[in-house]
Amino acid sequence: MEVLITNGVKISVETYYHPHYSSDMEGRNCFEYRIRIENLNPFRIQLLSRYWLIEDSNGERKIVEGPGVVGQQPILEQDQEHRYTSHCIFNSGIGRMSGYYIMNNLQNGNHFEVEVPAFTLFAPHVLN
Known about the structure:
Elements: E1 2-6, E2 9-23, E3 28-39, E4 45-56, E5 61-67, E6 75-76, E7 81-90, E8 94-105, E9 111-122
Antiparallel strand pairs: 1-2, 2-3, 3-7, 4-5, 4-6, 4-8, 8-9
């Protein structure tokens, strides 16, 4: 598990390989990542948007950005958490994701950035 605290927000990431949706013959490797966002600040926050840089070991790079996460823009009270699960598919057995969220401090209206810890995704067959 990767964990990082930025600007009073703790982000934890767990990753899983999905063999049922992957195919060695087609060069398709499906991964799931589970994110937990915890508000450690003494004020309410709202996740407004996300930015992801997704890279695989073949050199392919993709940027994904937009409002919220999986269709939601959660509001978190102090010490509250939000969890979500998403996935990505790589043409290679190794990939890396990094990024950040834009949050809104609902007490004063200021926006701030929260870094997501970079994480690497490995298909089990590439580790042998």
